[in-house]
Amino acid sequence: MPLRILIYFKEILGRIIDMNKMFDRKQIKIPRPEFIVLYNGENSYPEKNTLRLSDAFMDIEGLVPESKISLELLVQVYNINHGYNKEILQKSEALNGYSLLINKIREYQKTGFTLAKSIELAVKYCVEKNVLKDFLKDHGSEVVNMLFDNYDFDTYMDVVREGGREEGRVEGRAEGREEERNEIVRNALAEGASIEFIQKITGIDPSVINKLQEHTAQR
């Protein structure tokens, strides 16, 4: 994450700095950055954590950070899953509501509902409980699309692996990659994802997705 943020920050600086002034003698002032990540993943994670860019450096063992590391970037990570960092969530009604919404989606999934149904039920629950009520009423479809987008390619990969792929498969073989891809598509279709959405996150041709959908329906 610190490496990703470093790249993002470089892109931001490129937009806000007048490149024609880069070689002036006068010092260029830039906004003071503060890097924060809000974590709401499903893996166990501490309430608060600090990530350092230097953790990714090679040949760093034994160096004294203060004198030997020329570049550092600190990222403060806050776990915003339900039950964590209550003082932060209490300060933001929107953030607290989002945390509850995600928690409800996961609860419904654990009871056996598909992702699509879990999102639908969680949105309905939050509206009934007056959590993000106005926002969800006005932007419900956008929220659903956003949540589906977050259930991205990496998540589908996790689903496939957890489903028990054939052991001993050598990753990188063309056949293995194709079968893995097909399994991802089948899982996505089972979750109620549209062909357009699957094509967007995987880059697979819609005609291939259509064939897999037809084959799955014939089973």
Give an account of the 3D structure:
This protein is mainly α and 219 residues long. The chain has 3 domains: 2-21 and 29-79, no CATH class; 89-139; 153-166 and 174-218, no CATH class. The protein is 56% helix and 7% strand. It has 10 helices and 3 strands. It has helices at residues 2-16, 65-68, 86-91, 93-110, 115-128, 133-150, 153-162, 174-190, 195-202, 206-218; strands at residues 36-39, 48-52, 74-79. The longest helix is centred in the middle third of the chain and has 18 residues, at 93-110. The relative contact order is 0.07. Residues 163-173 have low confidence and may be disordered.
Counting structural domains, the number is: 3
**Low-confidence stretches at least 5 residues in length (pLDDT < 50)?**
163-173
Query: What is the approximate shape?
Result: extended
Instruction: Give the beta-strand count.
Output: 3
Helix content: 55-70%
> How much of the residues is beta strand, in percent?
5-15%
What distance separates the N and C termini? 42 Å
Q: Which class best fits the helix and strand makeup?
A: mainly alpha
Rg, Cα atoms, Å: 22 Å
Spatial sequence of strands, sheet with the most strands: 1-3-2
Helical element count? 10
Characterize the main sheet: 3 strands, mixed
Order of helices and strands: HEEHEHHHHHHHH
Which key terms come to mind for this protein?
56% helix, 219 residues, single chain, 3-stranded mixed β-sheet
Please write out the topology.
Layout: H1 2-16, E1 36-39, E2 48-52, H2 65-68, E3 74-79, H3 86-91, H4 93-110, H5 115-128, H6 133-150, H7 153-162, H8 174-190, H9 195-202, H10 206-218
Parallel strand pairs: 1-3
Antiparallel strand pairs: 2-3
Helix pairs in contact: 4-5, 5-6, 7-8, 8-10
